[in-house]
Amino acid sequence: MKIKNILLIVFVLLMLPASPASAHKVIIFAWVEDGMIHTESSFGSKRKAKDSIITVMDEKGLMVHQGKTDQDGKYSFKIPDHIQSDLILNLTAGTGHQAQWKLSRDELKIPPSQKDIQAAMKEKETLEESPSVFKIIGGIAIIFLLALAVKFSKRKPNLK
Amino acid sequence: MHISEGVLSGPVLAAGAAIAVAGTAIGLKKIEYDRIVHVAILASAFFVASLIHVNVGPASAHLILNGIVGLLLGFAAFPAILTALVLQSVFFQYGGLTALGVNVVVMAVPAVFSHYLFLPLIGKSSTLTFTAGFLSGLLSILFSSLLLGAALWFTDKNFFETSLVIIMANIPIMIIEGIVTGFCVTFFLKVYPEIIPKKKL
To answer: Where are the domains of chain B?
Structure first.
């Protein structure tokens, strides 16, 4: 029993820094500013996608640029010359983690207003926020409703 | 452990979906009427566990709990994990819906193995129960890491390197899941023995 008690304490101590987070929600967010394309990549707000490859492709799927995120999950590059198409930014964050972001040709040509940047930042925050309690409770409710449906389908007919 | 959209090739996705459908069909057929609520409880635990992010030193990962789900449910782990993964994908944006079949296989196949390997040891003695639970939690994550490496092999063409990276990243979670599963099984045996399957193979 003593060993179990020690293990229980070790486990509780290990769980202390635990916090709800998005470990596998892979996000790439990109915006255009001053002739540059800026990107931020993460697995949610706290974990940045470091040293991850960003491949930029045009509408036809041809690679026009490639780079690597820094320690903060950021990567910026100059808008490729003579681009007349939307750009698709593909983030490869290793071991099956991948995400995409699309920049339209209009975004590449017209400099964004302060309002556009604020709207984009709000969108980024929405993407990065942790799941709400409503979603968690909703998910559990759906599981139990499905269980109820299975239970109903498996009930034995009353043969009285 | 959740593979994103657009990573895997068509044949891998199709094979994963076929195995997941077969496993889910067997699981649904095998669920006993009186154990449906247990399936729902464990599916809920699996659904929520991914939100518990554990930081151990420089590494960090989230709980999966496929070991205990499989240990207690057997083939019923397939529908439980499938449901939880669909909801994780829709509500939390974890993994891609097209990769759902492969994700189910990666997490449910080791779960079913843990049922057949370790359930016969549960209840023999308290030490053996804890050890069986611990190994069930630990080995399920190890096996899942290898399956994930195998699925990605078709993309990366480097099974050993990819698997090694996944296993190294998941070592803390293997140990934690082993301890969690060991304690949960010991606890259930004392206070909620109904959740342990009576038919021990």
So the answer is: 10-195
CATH number of B10-195: 1.10.1760.20
Domain that holds residue A83: 27-134
What ipTM goes with this model? 0.83
pLDDT digits (tens, 9 = 90+) for A27-58: 888 888 777 888 888 877 667 778 888 888 88
Looking at residue B186, its pLDDT comes to 92
Mean pLDDT over each residue of chain B, to the nearest integer? 85
- pTM of the complete model beyond 0.80: no
Three-state SS at A4: helix
Chain A touched by B19 (CB under 8 Å): no
Provide the percentage of residues in chain A whose pLDDT is more than 90.
6
Residue A26 contacts residue A91 (beta carbons within 8 Å): yes
CA distance B173 to chain A (A): 11
Cβ separation B152–A96 shorter than 8 A: yes
Closest CA to B188 of B65, B46, B72: B72
Residue B59 has pLDDT above 90, yes or no: no
By Cβ distance, the residue of B4, B169, B183 closest to A98 is: B4
Please tell me the distance in Å from B125's CA to the nearest CA on chain A: 12
Nearest to B36 among A4, A140, A151 (CB): A151
